[in-house]
Amino acid sequence: MPGAGMENAQLFDAGNKGRGLRATKDLSAGDVVFSEPGFAAVVFDSVAANVCHNCFRRKSQLHRCAQCRFAYYCDRTCQTACWEEHRLECAAIRKIVTAPNQQVRLAARVMWHIHKETAIASDSQLVAADKLEDHVKDLGEEGLKKLQANVRSFFDYWSYGSKKHSADYISHIFGIIKCNGFNVSDQRGLQAVGMGLFPNLSLVNHDCWPNCTVILNNGNQSALNSALHSKRRIELRALGKIKEGQELTVSYVDYMNLSADRQKMLKDRYFFECTCEHCTQHTKDDLMIAAAESKPSADTVKEVTAFSKARLEKIEAARVDGNFHEVARLCCETLEKQENVLADTHLYKLRVLNSASEALSYLRCYSEAADYARKLMEGYAKLYHPNSGQLGLAVMKAGVTHWHAGQIEQGHGLLCKAYSILLITHGPNHAITRDLESMRAQTEIELKMFKQNEKENHAMRQQVLKDNSAADKKI
Predict the structure, then answer these.
(1) Residues 255, 58: contact at Cβ < 8 Å?
(2) What is the enclosing helix (H) or strand (E) of 272?
(3) What is the pTM of this model?
(4) Which of 241, 240, 243, 250 is nearest to 276 (CA)?
(5) Most buried residue, 18, 116, 244, 330, by most Cβ within 10 Å?
(6) How far apart are CA 409 and CA 412, in angstroms?
(7) Which DSSP category does 271 fall into?
(8) What pLDDT digit, counting tens, does each position of 310-335 carry?
(9) Alpha-carbon gap, residue 420 to 424, rounded angstroms
């Protein structure tokens, strides 16, 4: 399988899109196009006490830095492995007492890295971190106010000997982070817990129907000696066949949005007009707003759509509060209202199905959760790329809920299907793929036991029927 360096990709002029990367050889689904260590990364403010600041793993018991009282680590070895990165940050936090927001902390880590050596993180890095696009000139009034506030906070926080920088240069760094920052996930790859800068990844342009996907590899921190830990890195993986010379693309936004909404998100965050085929041709927009096959009136569809939108806000509020009984109640009522009005591929229906399956799984109502998870998976399969990570995770969740509901054969089949997708998007060594392989093995054992018992029970039943028939003849 093509590996970790940059030998599979090269920088080129992508015309109106600016710089881009293209393949230097033919690639197949699941191939690692390149992997890249993080130039700098920080944990989100919202989970700062629940996630290791070194490896970004979630853990219930974390070791707190005794000096700054802000950073948390899995254990002493993780803390030691991160000390070189945290040392200046630790002193800066102690200086101002309270840690600044995640954007300021990331900007400071970027600057410390630049001053430590150069703006190059590794020999295979194609461009210096501070040479990336910033789009500061494109910020609106509100965006500029936030930027200026962050710059002021940065100067209160950051220090590096006698070296000074202008406000314009630091504004440039914040602009780079806004346009090029990448969300960093936890060890299961299910939730974003931080943000980081990966310069080579920043050169890969967007397409709503991309030929690559990005996965974070958290590295291995199991060794007792921190010097033997492997660092976190991103992996760019091919979703299908890519020809030599073809541009490499990823999606900056979730495809599960109408083309106009995706374009707005991209314009607001990344300052460009998306002209990909799926946006210009509004591909699958019709499915995302489709009415049910029963052909309800336009007024009914409009009414239920408005009702669903309002209910989704209440569902999200209940979910944030951890009130899963309320989430389940609201979801069931909304799905009942949507029945025979909105199609199974309608965005609002899929979002309600997702919340319903999660809430009912949490409440251990697995049979109902499995039904909703299956409908969600079927809707996703009609919208997402067949090798999409989002589809693979949805199939996996459906498999797990069917398994927990006692539907072992269906659960095993879905887990096998999910495994075939996640092997491409995540690779065999990712934590979630290894978990999935363990579940596949377990369901396979249970399925064999079930079928064996089923045969034994069938044989016993046949013997009873035979004995009863012989008795009847004697009578």
Answers:
(1) no
(2) none
(3) 0.87
(4) 250
(5) 330
(6) 5
(7) -
(8) 999 999 999 999 999 999 999 999 99
(9) 7
